[in-house]
Amino acid sequence: MLTEEQVLQALEPVKDPHLQKSLIEIGAVKEIKIKKNLVSLKLAIAQPGTAEQMQLQQEVVNAVKNAGAESVGLRFEKLADEEVAKHGGAAAEEEEGKSLLDNKRTTFIAVTSGKGGVGKSTVSVNLATSLARKGKKVGIIDADIYGFSVPDMMGIEERPKVVGQRIYPVTRFDVQVISMGFFVEDNSPIIWRGPMLGKMLNNFFNEVEWDDLDYLILDLPPGTGDVALDIHSMLPQSKEIVVTTPHATAAFVAARAGAMALKTEHEILGVIENMAYFESKLTGEKEYVFGQGGGPKLAEELQTEVLAHIPLGQPEIDEENFAPSVYDTEHPIGKIYMEMADKVIGKIEG
Ligand SMILES: Nc1ncnc2c1ncn2[C@@H]1O[C@H](COP(=O)(O)OP(=O)(O)OP(=O)(O)O)[C@@H](O)[C@H]1O
């Protein structure tokens, strides 16, 4: 079994990103619990709840796992101001302004669905790239905590740069991308509780260097649970797009997501019916594999319009520009997304 000594030794080279001193030297380790090979740590650092913490948590997990832990749980708290000063740092200052939430120019569009697997992330990614292809400055936040798929879908391998307190998004297809998945270890199970999730999202608004966005697309967790509701409430100014499949029951479930949008007073821009039909390449005939009518029914219920019926179909994958879920502008589905982007721009910019 791993000992406390070994854990401390493993942490010796890891530095507090703000103070640039070893966690051990600044007395950051406030608690160590070891159960078999599960290690849980409480760490006091100069600037918890910030980009610096995100940068650090990965280093700590790696160091302790390299020492033999199977799983590492972390809790962070603020290192006392005297300690911060003693080790050469300035007391944490409130981040100055520059929150995306204050930028009047930016329109937030949350993409939601009643349940998982209906294509919400695919729609978010393609809406974002199409808006960018129309010349708009666009960002996307992948906040779907049940599966961070946006980086994979867009073929992103790099991670954002973290410089001091600022996070620089990764740019792909002219879209500025931030995903929670950038800050967690591959496949590591993470339990997101409301406050932690809210804090992460707030960081994405306040600490990411977004370049003067016209549109910010938010890929939200599916469903109508507490987490989804919390996020919706955090974004009072957001508009919303609801994704459904054509099946009547799918639309019924999506209606609950839509009702939640109305409760939070978000304007619903429209409904997208995804996987609407399959079009035969040979005959051009449409087959309604997943039923029919779900989109229009949902739009009627939410008193909005159907922005697009998107058929089944895969993007052509270009080896050089590998992005498994981004449709080209020449692809029939890519064209539908471009028309949809026009509709969205028309609705917002008049
Ligand atoms: N129009 C389409 N034609 C073919 N495949 C599609 C289409 N839309 C989405 N898909 C595929 O369906 C799967 C689910 O899509 P996606 O991940 O976008 O759904 P989601 O609603 O975001 O799911 P989750 O909430 O579970 O993340 C993916 O494999 C995606 O490539």
TrEMBL record:
Q: Which Pfam families match?
A: FeS_assembly_P, ParA
Give start and end of each MIP18 family-like domain: 4-67
- Residue sites binding ATP per the record: 114-121
Membrane-crossing segments per the record? none
Q: Which GO terms describe its molecular function?
A: 4 iron, 4 sulfur cluster binding; ATP binding; ATP hydrolysis activity; ATP-dependent FeS chaperone activity; metal ion binding
Q: Which InterPro entries does the UniProt record give?
A: FSCA_dom_sf, MIP18-like, Mrp-like_CS, Mrp/NBP35_ATP-bd, NUBPL-like, P-loop_NTPase, YlxH/NBP35
One Gene Ontology BP term is: iron-sulfur cluster assembly
What are the alphabetically sorted keywords of the record? ATP-binding, Hydrolase, Iron, Iron-sulfur, Metal-binding, Nucleotide-binding
What HAMAP family is this protein classified in?
Answer: Mrp_NBP35 (MF_02040)
Hey, which family's this protein in?
In the C-terminal section; belongs to the Mrp/NBP35 ATP-binding proteins family.
Q: How does it assemble?
A: Homodimer.
Q: What does this protein do?
A: Binds and transfers iron-sulfur (Fe-S) clusters to target apoproteins. Can hydrolyze ATP.
Task: Quote the protein name from its UniProt record.
Answer: Iron-sulfur cluster carrier protein
Taxonomic lineage is: Bacteria, Bacillati, Bacillota, Bacilli, Bacillales
